[in-house]
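Budget justification aside, the reviewers requested a transparent look at the raw inputs and outputs of the sequence design task funded under Objective 1. We therefore reproduce one unedited record. The lines immediately below are the structure tokens for a 192-residue chain.
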């Protein structure tokens, strides 16, 4: 008779996500995963197949959580300006129990050129973010909050590039005030 799982999959996946986010894929060993996830090596293989599959599932879990957070912030916003500020605030703030930066950006930088699975997940995440920015810019242009001098798609690509840079800089000891200044300059480019 097969043993039943003595853990909740999403809970241990969150723990794996956090250690990958903090250390990166290559620096995270199976021993690190066993220790941080609190389950046996065999359980990791039985549930997630291998380290690479676990990493991809952790990326997917991270992406889902971030997208849900950003969508909630957008829906709670009364204006496009407020929505953009909230998005950038999420990107520049640090929760006490989470590593700095962004798992997707970190993974793209570490593995994107040599791991097609990581590359495709990163690009999909980036495309979703650009579409989100584009929709907010179009909203702001319709309501007169943002200039219509620039193409919404091109400005979305620009803002996404800024957001990737901000999330990469968040991995360093960069002063948070500097990140806020970068966001404010970017927001000024949208003004009518």
């Amino acid at each position: 008779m097969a043993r039943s799982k003595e853990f909740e999959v999403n809970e241990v996946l969150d723990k794996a996500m956090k250690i990958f986010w903090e250390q990166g894929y290559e620096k995270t060993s199976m021993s690190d995963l066993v220790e941080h996830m609190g389950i046996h090596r065999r359980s990791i293989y039985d549930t997630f197949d291998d380290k690479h599959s676990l990493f991809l599932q952790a990326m997917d879990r991270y992406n889902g959580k971030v997208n849900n957070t950003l969508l909630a912030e957008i829906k709670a916003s009364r204006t496009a300006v407020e929505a953009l500020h909230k998005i950038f605030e999420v990107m520049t703030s640090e929760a006490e129990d989470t590593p700095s930066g962004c798992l997707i950006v970190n993974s793209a930088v570490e593995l994107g050129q040599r791991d097609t699975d990581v590359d495709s997940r990163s690009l999909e995440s980036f495309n979703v973010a650009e579409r989100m920015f584009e929709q907010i810019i179009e909203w702001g242009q319709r309501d007169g909050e943002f200039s219509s001098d620039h193409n919404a798609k091109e400005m979305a690509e620009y803002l996404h590039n800024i957001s990737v840079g901000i999330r990469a800089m968040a991995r360093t000891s960069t002063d948070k005030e500097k990140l806020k200044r970068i966001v404010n300059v970017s927001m000024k480019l949208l003004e009518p």
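The mean pLDDT is 92. The radius of gyration is 19 Å. Computational costs for records of this kind are itemized in the attached budget.
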